[in-house]
Amino acid sequence: MAKSCKGLAMELVKCLSESDCVKVENRPYRECAKEKSPSISSECVGLRETYFNCKRGQVDMRARIRGNKGY
Predict the structure, then answer these.
(1) pTM for the whole structure
(2) Which of the residues 33, 37, 55, 62 has the least number of beta carbons within 10 Å of its own beta carbon?
């Protein structure tokens, strides 16, 4: 994993671990991250979108030449 996205991934996991989706419903992180569930806070949804955009930037050839954005 690139260094630019690693911090976002850790923040996303931390946010999801504190959400009701993982705590109350005992669902895996991956399943909670994929869905647009009401048990996930808007902060987690924002982190998820930012993380996915960061990962997308690693695959985009234009971004690979210029460097990944520092979200």
Answers:
(1) 0.73
(2) 62
